[in-house]
């Protein structure tokens, strides 16, 4: 985007004067800190301000990260060895402050300086991320000679240890630069687990020395860009030209880049299903009864029939070999082994799978998947790794040491937690950011389901109905981005933002700190900040959010909400005699407070933003 356009966007966002606003009296930090109090006075950060890190070496990772980041903002920072009076000081506590834990921090902005302290470098890093959000939104574009920050105290720490973001690089492949940009975004919102979905039916994306055909064949597909839903399967004479994979050096580079941002990278290798690309490269790893010629898929692939044979020892050896290559690249103690949507039709008919079931005394295929995953889990445990699997792994009775990633719905996560598994919540109700963020007719093509911003914000990894006895099994949650319809990282950003900010607040902030109108208001500054850094922020939905509740008199109380700060909603209740009458023109009035209607009433409502009607007049049938 041109600089001038960005300036205009920012000016518009900041100046937006019409529409209804929630007053914000502080810094608009996302995710909301655990405790913040604004004070009188402030600190003026000027050209003479220096930055100091008492006790940390100049080449310490956090020191280098902070200094580079400030340089990118043109703040001309000077690193100072001594803790002078006019300085911004980052201090590691000598004695641990129990209120901060391993990731928390304390910031004090006073007239004589800014003081950031933490028990760990991770805490200092998060303190710095908060400090960045306290600077003007356009600090990334202008050279400020001085900035005055209002005095305040912030004490902050996260609600959950697992604050993840998943990226599918199989359906579409993203460059090292894109992945780094993704990691930067995660760091800005204090997300700490990058779940890298490296293999699937549409491409294998990690270098393998022992199985070179995984890269020569499995990483490439025939290019059907722009036609996902209508993509015809590849013909035998078509050349596979779309794809690629990360070399081991690139993986190391990304893992190191993530570590500098206090992000752990968890690779995912799909077992036993979603493996067309493996079978295209090594057909002998499929079931003996299956004579399909697999190709690296080019479009929708459902049901996903490709499955590794569970009765063939050389398949198990293949998995051990591949994982042995992967383990040294990723310092994380977790490896994700997939386990979702394994279509087991072949296993019923394959003589090898049937023989394995007989040998194990199994009468159905679900425990056969559990056995296969358990074998892999045992192999990885010898190397100090714990497996994570999608929630289907509990169906056949996965080992209790496995971590369950609950995706199908919140209920599956609660079931796994009650059965004693550790759980990461990433339910389709709130966390699938590849779903539309608004009505399809106003959005670029996406997966045909919808999660508007307010629905993402309603995510709670520990639902209230989950008894506290089981709640402690929930490690946290994450947002997922499946990329069937996402051809570029620019589009990925459009889908992620601003919903990733909502998920980040659900994962970092305490339940009582969450406040939807306030969050929505904070996004005005957040989006301006993101746009100044040339992030492609999604166009929110302008469909009024209508909620109705039955009264004691059997009427309905209607409440109308909206997604974007600065929106006005106009509405009309259609008299019964005019329902369905397209000639009747309603008098739309400004919504100011909840109102009551009879059951069966039809409500018409439309958002206006900055004085202009947006999208269409939507109809709602109340109580039906
Ligand atoms: C999934 O969305 N199949 C995990
Ligand atoms: Zn088989």
Topology:
Elements: H1 3-15, E1 35-46, E2 50-52, H2 61-72, E3 78-80, E4 87-92, E5 105-110, E6 113-118, H3 121-134, E7 146-156, E8 162-168, H4 176-188, E9 193-197, E10 199-200, E11 203-204, H5 213-216, E12 220-221, E13 242-243, H6 248-260, E14 264-271, H7 276-281, H8 313-326, E15 334-338, H9 345-349, H10 351-360, H11 366-381, E16 386-390, E17 403-406, H12 410-418, E18 422-425, E19 435-436, E20 447-450, H13 453-457, H14 468-471, E21 474-481, H15 489-496, H16 499-508, H17 516-532, E22 545-550, E23 556-561, E24 567-574, E25 589-590, E26 595-597, E27 602-609, E28 612-613, E29 618-621
Helix pairs in contact: 1-17, 4-6, 8-11
Zinc ion is lined by residues 287-288, 309-311, 346-347, 350, 352-353.
């Amino acid at each position: 985007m041109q600089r001038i356009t960005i300036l205009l966007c920012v000016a518009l966002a900041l100046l937006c004067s019409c529409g209804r606003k929630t007053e914000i009296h502080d810094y608009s930090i996302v995710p909301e800190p655990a405790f913040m109090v604004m004070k009188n006075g402030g600190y003026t950060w000027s050209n003479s301000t220096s930055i100091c890190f008492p006790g940390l070496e100049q080449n310490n990772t956090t020191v280098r990260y902070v200094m580079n980041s400030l340089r990118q903002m043109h703040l001309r920072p000077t690193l100072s060895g001594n803790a002078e009076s006019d300085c911004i000081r980052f201090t590691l506590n000598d004695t641990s402050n129990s209120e901060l834990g391993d990731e928390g921090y304390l910031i004090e902005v006073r007239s004589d300086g800014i003081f950031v302290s933490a028990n760990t470098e991770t805490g200092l890093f998060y303190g710095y991320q908060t400090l960045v959000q306290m600077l003007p939104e356009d600090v990334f574009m202008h050279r400020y000679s001085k900035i005055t920050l209002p005095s305040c105290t912030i004490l902050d720490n996260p609600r959950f240890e697992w604050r993840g973001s998943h990226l599918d690089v199989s359906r579409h492949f993203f460059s090292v630069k894109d992945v780094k940009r993704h990691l930067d975004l995660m760091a800005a919102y204090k997300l700490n687990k990058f779940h890298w979905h490296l293999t699937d039916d549409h491409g294998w994306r990690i270098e393998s020395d022992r199985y070179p055909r995984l890269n020569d064949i499995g990483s490439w597909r025939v290019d059907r860009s722009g036609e996902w839903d209508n993509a015809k399967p590849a013909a035998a004479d078509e050349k596979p030209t779309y794809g690629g994979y990360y070399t081991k050096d690139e993986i190391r580079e990304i893992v190191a880049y993530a570590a500098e941002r206090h992000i752990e990278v968890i690779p995912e290798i799909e077992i036993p299903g979603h493996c067309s690309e493996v079978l295209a490269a090594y057909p002998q790893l499929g079931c003996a009864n299956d004579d399909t010629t697999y190709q690296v898929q080019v479009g929708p692939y459902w049901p996903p029939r490709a499955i590794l044979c569970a009765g063939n020892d050389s398949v198990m050896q293949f998995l051990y070999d591949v994982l042995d290559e992967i383990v040294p690249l990723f310092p994380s103690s977790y490896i994700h082994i997939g386990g979702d949507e394994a279509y087991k039709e072949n296993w019923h008919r394959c003589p090898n799978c049937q023989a394995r079931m007989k040998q194990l005394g199994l009468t159905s295929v679900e425990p056969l998947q559990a056995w296969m995953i358990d074998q892999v889990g045992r192999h990885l445990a010898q190397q100090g790794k714990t497996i994570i699997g999608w929630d289907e792994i509990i169906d056949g009775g996965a080992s209790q040491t496995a971590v369950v990633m609950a995706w199908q719905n919140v209920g599956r996560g609660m079931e796994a937690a009650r059965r004693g598994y550790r759980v990461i919540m990433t339910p389709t109700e709130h966390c699938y950011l590849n779903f539309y963020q608004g009505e399809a007719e106003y959005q670029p093509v996406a997966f045909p389901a919808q999660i508007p911003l307010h629905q993402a914000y309603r995510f709670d990894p520990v639902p209230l109905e989950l008894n506290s006895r089981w709640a402690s099994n929930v490690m946290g949650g994450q947002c997922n981005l499946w990329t069937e319809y996402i051809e570029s990282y620019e589009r990925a950003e459009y889908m992620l933002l601003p919903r990733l900010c909502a998920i980040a607040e659900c994962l970092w902030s305490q339940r009582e700190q969450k406040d939807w109108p306030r969050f929505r208001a904070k996004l005005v500054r957040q989006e301006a900040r993101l746009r100044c850094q040339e992030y492609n922020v999604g166009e929110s939905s302008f469909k009024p959010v209508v909620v109705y509740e039955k009264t004691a008199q059997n009427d309905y109380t209607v409440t109308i909400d909206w997604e974007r700060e600065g929106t006005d909603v106009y509405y009309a209740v259609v008299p019964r005699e005019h329902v369905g009458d397209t000639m009747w023109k309603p008098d739309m009035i400004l919504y100011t407070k909840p109102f009551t209607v009879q059951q069966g009433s039809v409500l018409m409502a439309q958002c206006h933003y900055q004085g202009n009607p947006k999208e269409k007049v939507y109809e709602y049938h109340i109580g039906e």
